[in-house]
Amino acid sequence: MAYNNDNIFAKILRNEIPNNTVYEDDSILAFNDIAPKTPVHVLVIPKGNYIDLDDFTANASTIEIGNFFSKVGQIARDLGVPESGYRLVSNNGENAGQIVPHFHVHIMGGQKIKEGSMARGMQS
Ligand code: AMP
Q1: I want to staple 108 with a disulfide (CB 3.0 to 4.6 A). Which of 33, 38, 77, 99 is the partner?
Q2: Could you give the domains of the chain?
Q3: Active site residue ranges
């Protein structure tokens, strides 16, 4: 499957649609989810064109992958969620609930997440 340049996160990266930025550098953008499932619900995306976690871990460099997850941890600390706990989610593929085909992780926290609730948030 080829990367689709028309996906909504690609448009955000091209500044064609707005976002509520939490963190940005030359390789990563983090922004608030437009439909938060938890009080803190931030999406973190690499600026490179990767479809999903599988594509990212198969084709990005080890440095890029390490940098990405290191920054995810730092963003979570900046959001203040590690102490109370947070969930890190990446839906990989349509069957897993991935809607936007640009690799992203969800940082979800700020409340107790129901046991057994799935990655899309508080749905059970
Ligand atoms: P996923 O199901 O893992 O692909 O998650 C996609 C996420 O992107 C959902 O939680 C949506 O609420 C979120 N989303 C979709 N469009 C936007 C947008 N324009 N700005 C911020 N978040 C968005």
Answers
A1: 38
A2: 8-121 (3.30.428.10)
A3: 104
